[in-house]
Amino acid sequence: MHLCSFENSGSYLSFFIGIRVEVALSEDALKRWVDESVQVSMQHGYNPSYFNEMIARYGARRAMARLVSTGKIQSGLPRLKLLGLASEWSIEAGILKFPDLFTKEEQAMAKFRLEHADDPLLR
After folding, report:
1. pLDDT by residue (tens digit) across 42-99?
2. Is 64:102 a contact under the CB 8 Å cutoff?
3. Residue 30 in contact with residue 46, Cβ under 8 Å?
4. Rounded distance between C-alpha atoms, residue 21 and residue 99, angstroms
5. Could you state, in order of their start, the residue ranges of all structural domains in the chain?
6. In contact, 52 and 109? CB cutoff 8 Å
7. Of 121, 120, 122, which is closest to residue 109 (Cα–Cα)?
8. Does the reported pTM lie above 0.85?
9. How distant, in Å, are the alpha carbons of 43, 52, 79, 104, 112 from that of 38?
């Protein structure tokens, strides 16, 4: 299968470069949002130390995807919900805020977790 010919390879190249630049900009915006989320959490008395460790190890996007993909709700989400911060500053909220960086499955898990943050059977 031939995807592009020599004549139009420049337009394909521009297209793919454009996607890579857009993703990089989105990942930069995600990182800024994550940094602000951590600051807001700490201002309200919650230090998301495990999340910070995950970010250092995997980067923001991969850490968020890994955490939301587990079968259980970590302690941070219920804590943020009690503080009134979950809908705007939780990992799950970030996944929904930056949908282009996450799979449909990760988005569905994030939505489910936000809706069931109080369920003790999921912890």
Report:
1. 999 999 999 999 999 999 999 999 999 987 888 899 999 999 999 999 999 999 999 9
2. yes
3. no
4. 16
5. 27-116
6. no
7. 122
8. no
9. 9, 8, 13, 25, 22
